[in-house]
Write a structure and sequence with these properties.
The protein is mainly alpha-helical. The protein has a two-stranded antiparallel sheet with strand order 1-2. The relative contact order is 0.04.
C-alpha cells in the first residue's frame, strides 16, 4: 500500500528521520539558547532580590536619620529659645 508514492515503511523511516532531526535541533536550541537565558534570568532575579533588600535597609536607615534630625532640631530650637529668652512656641 502506498500513499503519495511512498510505502508505509518509507513513511515510517521518513518520520523517524524527521523526528530525530527535530529532537536534535530542539536539544541544541535548549542547550545554546534557553539554558543561558534561564541562567541569566535567575541571576537577574537574585540581583533584584538583593537590591530590594538593600533598598528596604536604606529606607529604614533614612527613617532613623530623619527621626534623629527631628529630635536634634527640637533640641536646637529649645536652646535658641533659651538663649534669646523668647517664647518656646514659634
Amino acid at each position: 500500500m502506498t500513499f503519495i508514492g511512498l510505502t508505509i515503511q518509507e513513511w515510517a523511516a521518513t518520520l523517524a528521520v524527521v523526528g530525530t532531526l527535530f529532537g536534535g535541533i530542539s536539544f541544541i536550541f535548549k542547550t545554546i539558547i534557553i539554558k543561558p537565558l534561564s541562567d541569566a534570568i535567575a541571576n537577574l532575579q537574585k540581583s533584584i532580590d538583593e537590591f530590594r533588600e538593600q533598598m528596604k535597609e536604606s529606607d529604614d536607615d533614612r527613617k532613623a536619620i530623619h527621626m534623629r534630625i527631628n529630635r536634634l532640631d527640637k533640641r536646637v530650637h529649645g536652646l535658641e529659645v533659651r538663649l534669646k529668652g523668647g517664647d518656646i512656641h514659634d
